[in-house]
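Appendix B. Raw example, untouched.
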Amino acid sequence: MKKINLSIDGMTCSSCSNGLEKYLNKQKGILNATVNLVMANATIEYDEKLLNKEKIEEFVKEAGFKSLGEFKEIKVEEKSKKEKFKFILFTILAILLMYISMGHMVNLPVIPFLDPHTNTTNYMITLLLLTICFIIYGFDILKNGYKNLIHKTPNMDTLVSIGVITSLLYSIYNMYFVFKGNHEQVMNLYFESASIVIYFIKLGRYIDGISKDKTKEAIQKLVKITPNTAVIKIDGIEKRVTLDEIHKGDIVIARAGEKIAVDGEIISGKAHLDESFITGESKPVSKETGNKVIAGSINYDGYIEYKAERIGKESTISEIVRAVIEATNTKPQIAKIADKISGYFVPSIIFIAIITFLVYLLIGQGFQTAIISFVTVLVVACPCSLGLATPLAVVVSEGLCANNGILVKKSEILENAQKVNTIVFDKTGTLTYGKLKIAEILNYSNIDDKELLQLVSSIESKSTHPIGKAFIEYVEQNKIPLLDVDEFENIAGYGIIGKIKNQEIILGNSKILEKYEIENKYIENEKKLAEKGNSIVYVVKNKEIIALIGVNDIVRDGTKEVINTLNKNKIQTIMLTGDNKETAEKIAKEIGITKIISNVVPSEKAKIIKDLKQENKYVMMCGDGINDSPALASSDIGVSVNSGTDIAMDSSDVILTKNDLKSILNLIKISKKTVINIKQNLFWAFFYNILMIPIAIGLLKPIGITINPMIASLAMVFSSITVILNALRLKNIKGIV
């Protein structure tokens, strides 16, 4: 199975995207296709044995659209002067058309040359010529409507096309009778209806296009973070190149005031870098040889040379942008329901319009009344607002999340986060910074503390666990050389093992002693260290405990406030940790968590999550380490802090790019507001159709309420604008911390 993301041209409404999606999913070899109207792209999973890119692009063409190749970037297109001029020109023509066709009805001064009573031929030909201009202006609508009808995926354009063509042909039909001498038929011309329907739809799409572009701005800002060029060093010679010319392993130079061009590792120099766009840390971070740098960071004050490691699509920025785009390409359940309704809606409206036409003929209302009612039903029922209701709200919320340090991988999360009633937190690296310090050493061996820590640090240097960083920091500060380690092994949830000078060293918690059947004579000492809030590391050499080391952690800023807020909102909070009970209880008491599950291994973490879900709890798991990955994957919503390991972030649904747990509160708040907003949008879309369709049919004629195709098209535009404006309100959610 392969996946491809194509840019699609020619989609003008939600029915277009739904129609293309249905057509693609019908094709043999396509396993799943998701079409995104707002981003104008299609994500397609297919069997590479049966299909290739060229064949898929043929399917897109057959459906009436055009593939622009693989989706590479988010484009926020400014409306060109030519397009604006065209829109202004047709606005003037629309006003002129309305004045000529209807001015005499409201006692406005009549242009003698175009008087329908004295210069009938001039009047009709002028209206016809103006209408032809509008037909050319809206040819894309008519073309899409026809193609979608041919492919049995009728959409909004199909409704409009049938209505416009019907009005045009009916008017030309009446023109014929006028030329034959029946001058009364001049009052039965509906050229203006066909033209103004096209104009109002173009107006709606023009406004819609501007609004959709605004929703992409937050994502596009990420793309612009990296510089266009950089200086690389080749054989001691500096050369300025574009980012595309940088390869992995190249030595890149960043001077004070310049931006980091690609992700990499410093090999020379020292500087303070501003990484706030990723980490949310407002203060510049000190970086030196061996430290990683992120593309887009600003070098404040130093000179550094770094080796390019992650370039192009592999960079941190590209991954974030790609994840956001992929999130917008997934659909929450509420959107799938709306799509399904919209899919049945268009054929139903065509059926209702035909029945309306036939009924009017059967009851003797005449062909004119029947055809006008037919056109009005088609125009007034266009489901544009129905289709925009969900995707626009989702994209606005995605942008809002990105701006607030929340990277959501699937848009379903925006629907489901508000359901969360239980949040399970890992301790080390999640509730705490994971920046541990060696607090106390109980040495039971005949070697001194410095030599003991050299042994321990050498093995811990091979580990990714936060505890290992405390030892690495210690040896670096004290300039203690590391020893060679052989046969290193990581035993997740227990500890690590390695050999130094052919002597086996075991490091870990008390469970590792049980695993290797090592007698523990120091349980009381462990308790004393744990009571002080230490995480305990047993040091075992040749099956003999030679030391106990207490390592302390620091609680993340704002964690207590986050837990208190969750508790007030009746969301249960649980600490799930592999650490000992005493240490876990101390941290939990400090921040306000009442339920603690300690001394657990990774497989147990995942089982606990599954058990909670079986209790009908909607569970969010927040972690950062390799040992959290099974639990993150097992939870309803997995959340990883950005400082976590790659596998933890791969297993999660949400990444907190600012490493701030307050982002969880923001996610839940945005989720609640998004779901409310979508429901409001769907209500207005359905309410509009429920209200307007009976009027269009003529059921309210007895009480004097009627509409014609022009008013119907204007009402349709206002319906869409209402949904757009309501979705954009999400940008101004108050109370985000």
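End of appendix B.
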